[in-house]
UniProtKB/TrEMBL annotation:
InterPro entries: HTH-like_dom, Integrase_cat-core, RNaseH-like_sf, RNaseH_sf, Transpos_IS3, Transposase_IS3/IS150/IS904. It comes from Paenibacillus lycopersici. This is IS3 family transposase. It comes from the Bacteria. One of its GO terms (biological process) is DNA integration. The lineage of its organism: Bacteria, Bacillati, Bacillota, Bacilli, Bacillales.
Length: 300
């Protein structure tokens, strides 16, 4: 009788281990046990699978809230793999759905920030949608995006390094002037001190085509490159970054009450989360900052 019970226990465990692959009813028939008996056993005896799922759910929940609800199943799955978990992305997604853990998502809105109707000189499209780079500070892309705020409109100018995917310079202002993009450029240069020949790519906006901006690029010995008229794909990387910023920060929060609050939250997101912590799928799910450090360690 004891042997029979042990055999039955093993069959129930076998069903429990493979319930994500096969129907419980089918396995019960094949193994000669009742479906009701299996579920009674399941309720009475917490299996290793159930205990593992409990622990896994706790880690998934921790990563979800640690990322301030920004990570979906792909990134949480990769964080778990780093910790040594053997689990599929599908399972992570299923557990997140069961626990109502949904990453920040929202509808899109768009405010035009590019004024290309001007007579200022236009640089050739040197980049030609080649977004690859072999080292940091080889190619930078720049753009402006709108940030909603109850106290008044705000504009964010950003510069992204195509190798590290790091935001190397940024500036927030309530006016969309040449000074906005100039300050972002000066900040980036002061932080990275790039060598001569860096390709600086932007759209055809009047701010980037201005005499002051062109003069600063020349002073820094950077090569200017601009997108073709009306072709958003020519500057897709920086536009993708601004979409991430809005999805993970702007859309997840009520409209900023003040400009000071907007600056504080954007600073916190860019400097502490996006650059230093957020895993980037194109970098093998590590942060831009760590990716840059690994490059310099390897080439020291």
């Amino acid at each position: 009788m004891a042997h029979f019970q042990q055999s039955k226990e093993l069959r129930f465990q076998l069903i429990d281990e493979h319930r994500s692959e096969f129907r419980v009813e089918k396995m019960c028939v094949v193994l000669g046990v009742s479906k009701s008996g299996y579920y009674k056993w399941l309720e009475a005896t917490p299996s290793e699978r159930q205990l593992r799922k409990k622990q896994l759910t706790e880690r998934i929940t921790w990563h979800f809230y640690d990322s301030q609800k920004r990570y979906g199943s792909p990134r949480i799955h990769n964080e778990l793999v780093k910790e040594g978990w053997v689990v599929s992305e599908r399972t992570v997604g299923k557990i997140m759905k069961e626990n109502n853990l949904r990453s920040c998502m929202s509808g899109k809105f768009r405010v035009t920030t590019t004024d290309s109707k001007h007579q200022l000189p236009i640089a050739p499209n040197v980049l030609q949608q080649d977004f690859t780079a072999t080292k940091p500070n080889q190619k930078w892309v720049a753009d402006i995006t709108y940030i909603p705020c109850r106290q008044g409109k705000l504009y964010l100018a950003s510069i992204l390094d195509l190798y590290t995917k790091q935001i190397v310079g940024w500036k927030l202002s309530n006016t969309m002037t040449t000074d906005l993009v100039l300050d972002a450029l000066k900040q980036a240069y002061a932080a990275k001190k790039p060598a001569k020949g860096l390709i600086h790519h932007s759209d055809r906006g009047s701010q980037y085509a201005s005499k002051e901006y062109r003069k600063q690029l020349k002073k820094y010995k950077m090569e200017a490159s601009m997108s073709r008229r009306g072709n958003c794909y020519d500057n897709a990387c920086i536009e993708a970054y601004h979409s991430i910023l809005k999805r993970e920060l702007i859309y997840c929060n009520p409209k900023f009450k003040t400009q000071a609050e907007a600056y504080q939250e954007i600073y916190r997101y860019l400097e502490f989360f996006y650059n230093r912590k957020r895993s980037n799928s194109t970098l093998g799910y590590i942060s831009p900052y760590l990716f840059e450090q690994l490059y310099y360690e390897k080439n020291a």
